[in-house]
Write a structure and sequence with these properties.
2 helices, 43% helix
């Protein structure tokens, strides 16, 4: 793991971490199962907007509810 923290560029660190993760997943079936479980559970998103002019989203940029605000210039 110390190889990934060497003072190299981000691409190098990403490649090293990718290789280490691949090796760990190949060598540890329990880790594979646990990671698969965590990742599948994380894919569920529930969003609720409640009330007048409420806004809800998973990813949102500028939101205008037409309450007197001027939209930003593009």
């Amino acid at each position: 793991m110390s190889e990934a923290t060497d003072e190299q560029d981000d691409a190098y660190s990403t490649a090293v971490l990718s290789r280490l993760l691949r090796q760990a997943l190949q060598n540890d079936p329990e880790l594979r199962e646990e990671l698969a479980s965590v990742l599948s559970a994380a894919s569920t998103v529930t969003i609720t907007a409640s009330g007048e002019r409420s806004i809800a989203a998973q990813h949102i940029g500028t939101a205008i509810t037409d309450d007197g605000h001027t939209p930003p210039r593009v």
